[in-house]
């Protein structure tokens, strides 16, 4: 492989969702009802935890996604400023859909070992070839079911 070869692309950190006032009202009602129930049953810590969690959820729902820089080079996969060397990547999968294409990598991390990142449709084959040339194993991976549930709930 050419030592100067690299692939770069930019993508939003996550897919931005439009949330109307109804979504925020539903969040508020659910959080308040749950926390009041916790207080009635004497579980003050959990009630406070629900309120803080609901506030943070609302704040993150308002936050706009950042534009993330991705780069495949001779050393590994670089996401923002973090490098994942090829030796630490157990496997990868390029999922090509008509709607969106995604690169999955399985790393050696103990917490959340599978990382997914959006890729440009026209780069899908080139990224796959680059990973194979870097001796990374190709293994089919899919979006976790919890991600699909969260997507349907508007997160």
Runs in which pLDDT lies below 50 for 5 or more consecutive residues are none
Total domain units: 2
* N-to-C order of helices and strands: EHHEEEEEEHEH
Looking across the biggest beta sheet, what order are the strands in? 1-2-3-4
Helical/strand content category? alpha+beta
What's the quaternary structure here? single chain
Task: Give a written overview of the molecule.
The longest helix is centred in the N-terminal third of the chain and has 20 residues, at 21-40. The model has no long low-confidence stretch (mean pLDDT 86). The chain has helices at 21-40, 44-62, 124-133, 145-152; strands at 7-12, 67-72, 76-79, 82-85, 89-96, 101-107, 114-119, 137-138. The chain is 37% helix and 28% strand. It has a four-stranded antiparallel β-sheet, with helices on one face. It has a four-stranded mixed β-sheet with strand order 7-6-5-8, covered by helices on one side. The protein folds into two domains: 7-13 and 68-152, Pleckstrin-homology domain (PH domain)/Phosphotyrosine-binding domain (PTB) (PH-domain like, Roll), CATH 2.30.29.30; 21-62.
